[in-house]
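Troubleshooting log. The previous run stalled partway through. Resubmitting the same two chains, unchanged.
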Amino acid sequence: MNDSIPLQCLEVGTSGAVTAVVGNGDLVHRLDEIGLRQGAEVQMVQSGRPCIVRVNGQRLCLRADELLRVLVRPGVVA
Amino acid sequence: MSHSTENNLCVALIGNPNTGKSTLFSALAGVRQRVGNYPGVTVERKTGQLTHRARQLTLIDLPGTYSLAPRSPDEMVAVDVLLGRQNDAPRPDLVLCIVDASNLQRNLYVVSQVLELGLPTVLALNMVDIAASRGITIDVERLSRNLGIPVVEVQANRRQGVDRLKDALVEQIDRPAREHVSPFPAEFQNEVAALTRRLETASSNGQASLPRYLVERLLLDTTGYLEDVVLEHADPGLHGAIAEARTRLAAAGSPVPAVEAMARYGWIGQVLDGIVVRPRERRITLSDRMDRVLTHRLWGTLIFVLLMVVVFQAVFSWAAPAQDLIDAGVAHVAQFAEEHMAEGALRSLVVDGLIGGVGGVLAFLPQIFILFFFIAVLEDCGYMARAAYLMDKLMVRVGLSGKSFIPLLSSFACAIPGIMATRTIENRRDRLTTILIAPLMSCSARLPVYALLITAFIPERKLVGDLLNLQGVTLAAMYLIGIVTATIVAWVLKKSLLRGPTPPFVMELPSYKMPGPSIVLHRMFERGWSFIRRAGTLIVAVAVVVWASLYYPHDPAVEAPYAEQKVALETRLAELPESAAERGDLERELAEIDGRIAGAYQEQSILGRIGHAIEPAVRPLGWDWRIGCAAIASFPAREVVVATLGIIYNLGEVDVDDTQAAGLNSALQQATWEGTEEKVFNIPVALSLMVFFALCAQCAATLVVIKRETGSWWWPVFTFVYMTGLAYVAALVTYQVGMLIS
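Second attempt completed without errors. Output:
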């Protein structure tokens, strides 16, 4: 997880694999349920707070902060 | 917990949000729908009927959800209905899951939960056309085999595949549900079995045993909600047992609640293996291109602002003709009643109280319907989620999220549906804050007050060349006062009473689509009617009470000072020939005397006396006793103030009819302080009254809805006190500063 960066630092147009979702258990579980979970591929569509990412072909609008952190490893996922 | 009977079978419809569930529901049930509420919660209860191959099916629409994991009473309803634990709903004989073909992986999550319930299940694979256009192909036959349930391709918006789906429903009902293999690892299943045994021994006193699905959820729900609900009267030792089981599971590599997503996505991976073919390169869709503009920092915001201007412009200008029509209709009915009933208390009650009261509500319907029409269009085409995304940037500064945007927008039509729309906000503090500031948005009931006072007292002057008009700017200022105050109140609430971290904001941005006309109209009427039902009954009751307190004690002695003059006028009128020119003048004079008599009655009435009593309190706002009276009378519903002002300023009942409204305008302009020549109204007084109405909580229906949605009387009381306090202070400042300037 050393090469992981917070999701919001992912540059527009690039993709990454989610390495960890950290935070309150219930919030993490809700993200799990909609597919934003460890191993999922995310692509940054629009950066900022909130940002827009693409996960499994769906677009999600997301503002994560101290309660909920999504870490990704940048790079194309096979 | 009744099972449905042999010839009326019950089908529950469930699926993710934005999968076309409502469209499919309409396609299956047609117009045979009923909407209500489950007791004690805010979830809508929507049922429909359909007959197919001589079988009667009752369709229950459950709220769209990504997961059957109850963490609040609202989310519990869906689970209770499916398990047959909901008292007023029959246990479903069959579950119909609807999934979006272009995003099967996520959609199958809730399907995997449904399959564990042990009910016969049918899968409707919706939006196959969209999936195909993205180059996604799905082997439906193998999907059906892997899932062990029938899968039917449909395009709900085009009504395609609906008949095949009905066939599948009827056929599946007669087949027993296939045993579903749990996707959970063995250690988790062992813990579930152990907990089940523990629960059974604990509840040997005849309590019904808990369904396996809920035992699973007891272990998985770390919020503690389910333990509170399900184990309310159970052995307290069970809580410890659950905690121990979770510790063991964490040690075994199946931590709760993460084990659920791991297990279910693992199962989904197996089911979909080799079934879904996606193109290597993701095609750029129309939605992608639209989003590039519509969520753009600059263009997106600009378009959003423009759109809001267009919506509000339309709400006010389109509604006008319909409003005139309704007013004319109400006036006709009132006239008819007036002509056909004997003079007295009963006629006054019917004409002034009932018809006047109902007419007052009806006049707002066009605006409310138009705003709901736009909201439904923006929701159905997918734009609303983008608007919430854009607004989140602003909302987060006061500690709210973009989810508060739609409720607040609805509140510009009426705070009641606005407050009900806060149900989509999961965070309790955010939801409460939104509920508490929603009544500050200038609803359509304030508009008649603004319209009356602005046209009467604000000069029609052009500003900045010909671009703006002082009257329009004043109206905009009233809306702005509400918005700015709401912002400050929200910020203060989130820093004090409802302190807590700003919750993260996660929302799906669905693909854009053409709004379906039937869905849009249906939603518009549904919300419009629920407004009429809730507000209408209350406003009628209020109108009657206001009427009574303005009518009684109705001592005929007050007529005495005018009697001589009136008789003299009437005799002169009777002597004049029909064609005499003076007739018009005399008739006008007679009407004025009648108005004065009505006014004298008002002053002697219960409400009139209260108005006099509170005059010292409203004096600093620049109000005389009559304005104070109107403000009190309009406590239950602020739009009543226009009618009350009309009655009080010696004009008799006011119809919003143009000519008479002009009459009210001039009556207000002419009104003087009692016993002096000084005018009651000047610009500071008019502004003070408008500001008061912009901020006050003069709406009993809203307060009742706040009670219902928050479950406590404390919040409506709080809302009323803080809003009235703010309104009083703001009106005071407006008047005093206004007098200093002028």
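Takeaways: Residues 5-74 of chain A form a domain with the SH3 type barrels. fold (CATH 2.30.30.90). The longest strand of chain A covers residues 15-23.
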